[in-house]
Amino acid sequence: MPDRSMPIFASPADMNIRLPKVIRDFKQPEGAEIAKIVLIGSPNVGKSTIVNDLVKSNVSIVSLRPHTTRERIKAVLTQDNKQVLFYDTPGVVPEKNVSRLNRELVTASWKALEDSDHLLVVMDCHKLLEHGKVTESYIFERLGKMEPKIPATLVFNKIDLVKGKDEKLQEIAQKYQQLYPNFVKTIYTSANTPMVGIQELRTHLLSLTKAGPWLYPAEQKSDQSHLKRVEDIIRSELYGAIKVPYSIKQVNTGWTELEDGVLRIDQNLVVDRPGLKKIVVGSDGAVIRDITLNSRQLIGKALGRRIMLSLQVKVKTPKN
């Protein structure tokens, strides 16, 4: 049995592991084309799931909890001579709610538009028909003021949750077309049925590319660093397991190549108080054990190698 204990002189991930992956020396295809696409929408409408389905890789974490995506995540779709870059942004939050969230989180979606060729405006069909539309109204107010106007595609997601209400959705789509005349297409996708509308959306977006050099080699799916992907996967599992994930800080304490080819990753989960530690650890360690097991499997798949993962829950030391 190989020794996979944490070495005495183990060190955290270095800058090569922490920095975004940038590969500059790769061969450009003949007639290379590219497009930069930004997704915007209210929290929890399914933007991250759509991105993952489009690029056929889990590059953006998915959770039922709003604001799982905390910063722009660049995903890459490459087919033939075409490359499409996706910027999956945090859910849009009206300015009146800025005090509740980090300002950078609130403004990230709109900053991303500055570098885009096309917008994907994603709406939750169920919410549009059954609930208030405060955030949606705010999005279209901001779009209306935006200069220059950027071409866009309207994506009505979770169509499976509103069967039989197609006529009403078409009325809403027409209303949004009037509010933002730069929509070139409306596409319907599903929340629970994989790939419904995704192939249509992928084909449509690939048709938007224009002549220009690729920014990434064909095999690259994201520019996220290895550490960022690891931390996102762990955070997603935390969000799924407990009800208070926003008070947990991740600190990498070990990124160690073991002799048998296994990568050992050591992370501290730092919480504010002992009571929260009990919640994260769970009865007899059941919660943190499940989080560790699930995360290890997903990290191994994401990095394409065998992983040993150690998660330790720590209480933040009070400042004197």
From TrEMBL:
Pfam family, one: KH_2
Entry-linked NCBIfam families: era, small_GTP
InterPro entries given in the database record: G_ERA_dom, GTP-bd, GTPase_Era-like, KH_dom-like_a/b, KH_dom_type_2, KH_sf_prok-type, P-loop_NTPase, Small_GTP-bd
Name of the featured protein: GTPase
Positions of the KH type-2 domain: 234-317
Keywords tagged on the record: GTP-binding, Nucleotide-binding, RNA-binding
GO process annotations (BP): ribosomal small subunit assembly
Gene Ontology molecular function terms on file: GTP binding; ribosomal small subunit binding; rRNA binding
Gene3D superfamilies referenced in this protein's UniProt entry, alphabetically: 3.30.300.20, P-loop containing nucleotide triphosphate hydrolases
Family of this protein: Belongs to the TRAFAC class TrmE-Era-EngA-EngB-Septin-like GTPase superfamily. Era GTPase family.
Naturally occurring in which organism (per UniProt): Entomortierella parvispora
Record-linked HAMAP family: GTPase_Era
